[in-house]
């Protein structure tokens, strides 16, 4: 089984060919292809972590859609002072499909 650990959006994801992965927003419209930098490659029993060998590895993925994450509500409250603050946040995400690891 071949899989790779790639750096995507400040995190590392374990991916293999055909996987659907949700990562932080990457530039590109739906249908475009992107390259992800590999941190580690596992091909059966062979594990590759050397930087010069990983420079030859290319992990390509197709952008399926740009989506927004779940709404996060942040509330601050201090007792007896009347202080209340409410803030919201939604992450910008991209769903990708890994097409090749070479």
UniProtKB/TrEMBL annotation:
The gene is rplU. Keywords: Ribonucleoprotein, Ribosomal protein, RNA-binding, rRNA-binding. The keyword RNA-binding applies. GO terms for molecular function: rRNA binding; structural constituent of ribosome. GO terms for biological process: translation. InterPro entries: bL21-like, bL21-like_sf, Ribosomal_bL21. Part of the 50S ribosomal subunit. Contacts protein L20. Pfam families: Ribosomal_L21p. This is Large ribosomal subunit protein bL21. SUPFAM superfamilies: L21p-like (SSF141091). It comes from Nesterenkonia jeotgali. Belongs to the bacterial ribosomal protein bL21 family. One of its GO terms (cellular component) is ribosome. This protein binds to 23S rRNA in the presence of protein L20.
